[in-house]
Design goal:
This protein has 451 residues and is α+β, with helices and mostly antiparallel strands. 36% of the residues lie in helices and 22% in strands.
Length: 451
């Protein structure tokens, strides 16, 4: 399916540095940071200013609703965990400080969005201090903005993500009456993370006035043993507790640091906001939602429900959910509520019928999965930088776009795509090509041809 309405008319990038030169820049800047450097987009995905601003607005609005939904589940963290049937092993930092838990539950997030013929549809939210593609987006957007400046053209709408992260840290430190500084806590045991990955973030934060240091999870116990405590230390948690548990990393030191006073961003409740069940609850409708809330969800969220033995309303009719999923298999996707990196994601269109039936019955029994109506992406032309030698080709892509939101403000957007447009996960482990989405330069700013 192709459509130019939301993406605007395509104009291929022309001029600027030759492909081999840009390939060398990407190789240099992204080595030890990106999972893979090539193939990748040979141009930013440029959308009309109105489309860009709509995407940012919708990201902010839906994240507000996600946070409110979690807050209204129960008056305490314990009650919210029970309501979502979340695994407490994935929540080692949870505290009984409700203002902190709720207030910092959405500090940093990345939404995943598919654009269909009706516009953007938000298929999930990833809420964490280390959501994927943050640093890669920042580096790549800086590269393309530099190309624009060198050509004497106005910059795209692609604000610095790390400027907003620095402002979030500043506000937090000000509330603690201390100088702006942060401890980046991550895991070098993660093969996707390197020393350079964290050092580059430290450099970017310092450029925006925030002092930063890195602390590896593996050596955190030594720091705790040799320090007088973590009182008023602000820590940006750049790992997924669920991933840590699945990899066998010891999280006890993270809990100990929290007990010793570490002020962690985001709060552990972010893992509840992150749950795909929350998006499903919003899709089904909650008592406190206003007519405007419901209209926003209906416009931007595909039909989603927690899988169980119950009645639902789909396409204007009342149906039993399990038979619906079996009879309309090709229309749905099953997603584990706490899965990451496209794990626990099954597309009805590409899953064998008996396997799908087994998955649906198991999902109904566990009530861990959600069912989400399949969103078919609009195809869009993209130029691809195939390799380090500068080979290029043109493809018809199926973009999965990922706007970021920091401290309640949406800014910047990563992107990835498959050249085949096949149905299935659009992620780096599944061979997706990375890139960035930007907004056209503001009208009246002297914007010229795209570079």
């Amino acid at each position: 399916m192709t459509d130019s309405t939301w993406f605007g008319e395509y104009a291929p990038r022309r001029g600027g540095p030759p492909p081999a030169q840009l390939a060398s820049v990407f190789e240099t800047e992204l080595t030890d940071i990106a999972r893979t450097r090539f193939p990748r987009a040979f141009e930013p995905l440029v959308v009309p200013t109105a489309s860009y601003r709509e995407l940012m607005w919708a990201t902010e609005r839906l994240l507000q609703l996600q946070r409110k939904a979690v807050e209204h589940l129960a008056p305490t963290s314990e009650g919210r965990i029970a309501a979502l049937k979340a695994d407490v092993a994935d929540l080692p930092r949870m505290t009984d400080d409700e203002p902190y838990e709720i207030g910092h539950s959405g500090d940093i997030c990345r939404a995943d969005v598919v654009v269909d013929k009706g516009g953007p549809k938000f298929v999930e939210f990833n809420v964490s201090g280390g959501v994927g593609a943050m640093l890669e987006y920042e580096i790549e957007s800086r590269i393309w903005q530099g190309v624009r400046r060198d050509a004497g053209q106005p910059e795209f709408l692609a604000p610095s993500l790390y400027n907003l992260i620095a402002r979030l840290i500043e506000r937090t430190c000000r509330s603690l009456r201390r100088d702006p500084s942060v401890l980046l806590i991550g895991a070098l045991a993660d093969p996707a993370k390197t020393t350079r990955y964290f050092e580059t973030q430290i450099t970017f934060l310092k450029q925006h006035g925030v002092s930063a240091q890195f602390q590896d999870l593996a050596t955190l116990p030594d720091v705790i043993a040799s320090s007088s405590g973590f009182a008023d230390v602000v820590g940006l948690i750049q790992l997924s507790e669920r991933e840590a548990n699945s990899c066998g990393w010891d999280l006890s030191a993270l809990s100990a640091a929290t007990d010793a006073g570490l002020f962690a961003l985001p709060s552990q409740t972010a893992r509840l906001v992150d749950s795909k069940k929350v998006l499903a609850l919003l899709s089904e409708g909650l008592e406190w939602m206003s007519a405007d809330d419901a209209a926003v969800v209906d416009r931007y969220v595909p039909w989603s429900r927690i899988v169980g033995e119950r009645r639902v309303r789909w396409n204007g009719t009342e149906r039993d959910l399990v038979p619906l999923l079996l009879e309309e298999q090709s229309s749905f996707v099953l997603k584990g509520s706490a899965g990451y990196s496209s794990q626990e994601v099954f597309f009805g269109l590409t899953t064998p019928e008996q396997e799908w039936a087994d998955l649906v019955h198991a999902a109904a029994e566990s009530e861990y999965y959600i069912a989400q109506e399949l969103v078919t992406a609009v195809r869009h032309p993209m130029q691809v930088l195939v390799d380090q030698e500068g080979t290029t080709e043109s493809v018809l892509a199926n973009p999965r776009i990922s706007p970021f939101c920091v401290g309640g403000v949406a800014t910047g957007c990563s992107m990835r795509f498959h050249p085949s447009g096949r149905i299935g996960p659009v992620t780096r482990p599944y061979g997706a090509y990375p890139g960035v989405l930007v907004g056209e330069a503001e009208a009246g700013s002297g914007a010229g041809n795209r570079i």
